[in-house]
Structures are given as C-alpha cells and as structure tokens.
C-alpha cells in the first residue's frame, strides 16, 4: 500500500497519468454521451406523443413533480455516491436523464426542430472547445470555479425573481447571456477538476468509476444548461 501511495505521489508531482486514467476518462464521456442520448430520445418521444404531451402541459403537478424528482436525484447521487453501489448510481443517473428529457420535451412546443438542431451543434462545439481547454491548460482554474459557482447562485436567484416578480423578456435575455458565460467557464473548470481527480486513480475499480460517473453528471449538467441558455438567445418562437 505504501508503494502505491509513493507511486501516486510521484505521478502527481511529475504529471504522469496512471494506466487507468485513459479508460476512466473514456467512461466519463461515454456516460455523458449516453445520458444526452437518453434525454434527447425521451424529449422527442414525449413531444411527439399527444397523450404524454397533453399530460405534461395540462398538469402542473406532473411538470413540477418531474423537476423536484430531478433535483432530488442529483442531490442523492452527489451526496451519497460513497454509499451507493456503482450499479445503483448508474441507474439513478439513467432515471434522471429520462426525467430531464420528459421535462425538456416542452422546448419542441416553443422552438422548431431546425432551431433546436442548430443550437445543439453550437452547444456541442462550444462545449467541446471549453472541455478541451480545461483538460489541456496548465493554468489552475480552481479559483475561477469558486467565482463561477457563486455567479451560478446569483443567476438562479435572478431567474426566480424574474419568473415571479419582474417578468421581463429583456432581463431574461441578459440572464441568458450571463448564463452562457458561466457554463462555458464551468465546463472548463469541471473538465480540469475531473482530470485531476482521475489522475490520482490507481486502477479502474468501483471507487474510481464512481468518481468518473460524478464527473460525467457534472459535464452533462454543464451541457444541458449551456444548451438551454443558448436556445433562449438563438431560438425563434414558432
């Protein structure tokens, strides 16, 4: 055990990745991609089902129930990942992705498929560039991450105030531009953070795979939120 700890310290100091690192990084992006596919397929399926779409639109209880369930699942996965088995955590991530897809199905009622497709590719390009920047940069982004998280809290508060009190489309657009900047930065920050965490892994075991799963959840959330803010900016109502 002492030998492994010494080798890990040497790797961290010299910036050398373990043999497990490439496999774990692949898992991060494979899980994230699969989650996005589940979300997209679910959103499309619900949007094109008259019965399901009617239930989502007409019943606020169902819509808010989905949202609360999503928040609960993210909290459970993030808070109790050490206690959950890898299989359980993965299943919860799948359920969350599907619920998020059901919630996002409403965007098909507001924006055309062409606009959604265009914004998706814009998001994918932006996300990919910032994830690569976070992975390859030598700069320490940890201090930037703290500022971005505080900014995210501010955005959430501002969005709620606008939703219930101000109700201004201009204010919403301003918040959307700020949201894009925040999630562009968070994508780079999370990419670097995940890389640094997985560099410490000695093997592809359950513990290291759970770290990879949490990383894929973080990047998934960055992608989805970046997509939604860009959709508000570039989207055109039907």
From TrEMBL:
InterPro entries on file: Bax_inhibitor_1-related
Spans through the membrane: 28-49, 61-81, 93-112, 119-136, 148-166, 173-191, 211-231
Keyword flag Phosphoprotein: no
Membrane topology recorded in Swiss-Prot or TrEMBL: Multi-pass membrane protein
Top-level taxon of origin: Bacteria
Record carries keyword Nucleus: no
Coiled-coil positions: none
UniProt-annotated location(s): Membrane
GO CC annotation: plasma membrane
Keyword terms: Membrane, Transmembrane, Transmembrane helix
PANTHER family: BAX INHIBITOR-RELATED (PTHR23291), PROTEIN LIFEGUARD 4 (PTHR23291:SF50)
Family named by the database record: Belongs to the BI1 family.
Protein known as: Modulator of FtsH protease
Lineage: Bacteria, Pseudomonadati, Bacteroidota, Bacteroidia, Bacteroidales
């Amino acid at each position: 055990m002492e030998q492994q700890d010494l080798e890990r310290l040497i790797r961290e100091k010299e910036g050398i990745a373990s043999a497990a690192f490439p496999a774990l990084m692949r898992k991060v992006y494979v899980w994230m991609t699969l989650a996005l596919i589940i979300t997209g397929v679910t959103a499309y399926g619900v949007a094109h089902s008259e019965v399901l779409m009617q239930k989502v639109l007409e019943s606020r209880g169902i819509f808010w129930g989905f949202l609360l369930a999503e928040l609960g699942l993210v909290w459970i996965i993030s808070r109790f990942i050490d206690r959950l088995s890898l299989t359980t955590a993965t299943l919860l991530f799948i359920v969350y992705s599907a619920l998020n897809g059901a919630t996002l199905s409403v965007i098909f009622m507001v924006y055309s498929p062409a606009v959604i497709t265009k914004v998706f590719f814009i998001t994918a390009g932006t996300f990919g560039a910032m994830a690569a920047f976070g992975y390859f940069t030598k700069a320490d982004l940890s201090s930037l991450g703290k500022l971005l998280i505080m900014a995210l809290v501010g955005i959430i508060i501002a969005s709620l105030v606008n939703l219930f009190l101000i109700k201004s489309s201009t204010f919403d657009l301003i918040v959307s531009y700020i949201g894009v900047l925040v999630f562009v930065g968070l994508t780079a920050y999370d990419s670097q953070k995940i890389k640094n965490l997985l560099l410490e892994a000695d093997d592809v075991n359950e513990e290291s795979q759970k770290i990879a799963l949490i990383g894929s959840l973080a990047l998934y959330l960055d992608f989805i939120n970046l997509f939604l803010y860009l959709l508000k900016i570039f989207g055109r109502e039907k």
